[in-house]
Amino acid sequence: MKNPLLILLPLLFSIGMYSQEDQPTDSQKRIAKFAVAKRNEVSLDVISAIAIPALNPRYEYILGRYSGVGVDLFVSLDDSDEFDDYSEYEKFSLTPYYRQYFFSKEDYGAKGFYAEGFLKFFTFEEVMFSSVDDSVSEESFFETSIGAGIGWKWISQSGFLVDLGFGVGRNLGLPSDENAGQEVQVRGGLNFGWRF
Q1: Are 190 and 45 a contacting pair, CB within 8 Å?
Q2: pLDDT, tens digit (0-9, with 9 covering 90-100), for 155-190
Q3: What's this model's pTM, rounded to 2 decimal places?
Q4: Which of 80, 100, 124, 173 has the most CB atoms around it within 10 Å of its CB?
Q5: What are the structural domain ranges in the chain?
Q6: DSSP H or E stretch at residue 166
Q7: Which of 24-38, 66-80, 93-107, 137-151 has the lowest mean pLDDT?
Q8: Are the C-beta atoms of 170 and 184 separated by less than 8 Å?
Q9: Are 167 and 191 a contacting pair, CB within 8 Å?
Q10: CATH 2.40.160 fits 38-195, yes or no
């Protein structure tokens, strides 16, 4: 009869190897902890605040290591009448988006290079000046745009983030006046914020 130890030894070895595969590594534990603890981001576009001026906050919810969904809000604070004979400017927009992150091999993801798809709902005003009688006419329009963009997000381990992105969208409809509204919308900015 064969030695029972020779039969049991391979069986015990295979059970030990199988149980070791179920144990998460330290890196996997850090990823899981960060994914549960820090899934929310708030940020503010500093370019809009300085150049326009406008208030442009953003919120993003991290779905996982490679994706997130969010929304941008844009409110123009510029009531200036210093325009040429004809001008259009965005007054308000709400832009929901979905992002897919690439090359996120760090302990926590949803950072680095990303591509996004967005749907933008916005209002803009058409302002026309007449040099003949110095009159001003304003008309407001509502428009929807669909588009895509790319960018890069840096995040420190403490949660501070910098997000630089650019995108282009196509308007889905034009106002009744064929000359009003642009067919293409540009989206972009430099956001500073916090993941918590």
Answers
A1: yes
A2: 988 899 999 999 999 999 755 455 455 788 899 999
A3: 0.74
A4: 124
A5: 1-26, 38-195
A6: strand 160-171
A7: 24-38
A8: yes
A9: no
A10: yes
